[in-house]
Amino acid sequence: MTLVNHSDETLLPNEWPGSYFMGEEEVDTVTKVLMARSPFRFYGHDLQHYADQVEDHFRQRLGRKNAVLVNSGTGALSTAMLAADVGPGDEVLVPGYMWVACISSVIRAGAIPRLVEINDTFTMDPDDLERKISPRTKAVLLVHMSGACGDVERIAAICKRHNVLLIEDVAQANGARFHGKPLGSFGDIGIFSFQYNKNMTAGEGGMVVSDDDLLGKKAWAYHDLGYARNAAGRLEPDGAVQTWGQGLRMSEISAAVLHAQAQKLDLITATMRARNQQLYAGIGQIPGVKPRRVIDPAGDSGPFVIFTWPTGEICAEIVERTRAAGVKPGPMGVGNIRMTDWGLHIYYNNVSLVEKRGINSAGRPWSDPLNSFHTEISYHKGALPQMDDLIERSCLIPVPPSLTEAATNRIIDIYQQCARQIGLG
Which residues, including other chains, have CB under 8 Å from residue 77's CB and lie 6 or more apart? Predict the structure, then answer.
């Protein structure tokens, strides 16, 4: 079949998975909150207790003792860092493939991020993690990027052996599992995001989970105003924790949306996973292409597929040709890109990190005497050669739940035809 130039065709729907499942259920729950005139979670005319219900839902789903909803995934990361007592003199190990909020949470806590390589799972490389853990390491931030996990059990074992806290970032992988166990249940702390791009969404929102009661109490205090609250929702200065909070609370309106979305999470991820596996099976047949190594395909939450090509030049050409043929989203979306163009997900694209910019005029945390060891660390491109090579040769395609089986087959056909045109197969 001759490849037709479908320059006006866009085969990829916009990302934003949870948004496609918004309907009457979300309208009903939000309406109840508004009609009760009680949008604040701790007190009001007639509390609907959606935040409490969502926290209970995830405690049961994840098998965790503690859960607290916050206003964003960034807020969840910040709350987790503070609960873990991360501060000046500490380093936090972070993979080079992440999101800018992962790095900023470390910086804002006053600590220093140290980058760790990724492997072909596109998550943290446990071998490089083992090499880089030092006496200054306070925590490891394991980021489950692009919907699936990597060697989470091995990384958890490394952290335990070195007595280092493990923080799981499940922002892009809500609903994913590792051999049947939900992600977010392996670390000392887990964080989630419910921002618009995520598997389930309230537009914004986040959550922090843990089993340790002290961590749970600290997370609660830090996400609020530094103290516990009593049964009437009032602050208790004489409670178990007295500290400085950040006012990162979630409203009952957002919690009402999440309550409805949480019931649909498994359907959302199953829908994406079906198309995800179809793409891996089809495009993965092209000679020379290597699909992302997914340790547990049945546990992949499904929002992205990643393919690695023999060279960076081939990757760039295949992306250009397939986009010209229609494998692209509409003007509001991002999809079918070379991973070097994946913005602030790539460590060396974070200008403030590369240039070690401070959070204030004093240059903190870099200027803090306790952090003088940062002079040993570079964040420029080349700091992670293994990752740099992978990213140069890899492309990423989003898999929204509205992607049809027929459109997926068309994407596979286009990729296979374009690959033949440049001599693959």
Answer: 101, 102, 104, 105, 169, 191, 206
The C-alpha atoms of residue 160 and residue 158 are separated, in whole angstroms, by 5
Question: What is the three-class DSSP state of 173?
Answer: coil
**Ordered domains of the chain (ranges, CATH):** 24-264+351-373 (3.40.640.10), 265-343+387-421 (3.90.1150.10)
The H or E element spanning position 138 is: strand 137-143
Span 19-48, pLDDT tens digits? 999 999 999 999 999 999 999 999 999 999
Q: What percent of the chain has pLDDT over 90?
A: 93
Q: Which of 81, 90, 80 is nearest to 374 (CA)?
A: 90
Query: Of 176, 234, 235, 219, nearest to 69 (Cα)?
Result: 219
Q: Which residues contact 309 (CB under 8 A, 6 or more apart)?
A: 288, 289, 290, 315, 318, 393, 394, 395
pTM passes above 0.90:
yes
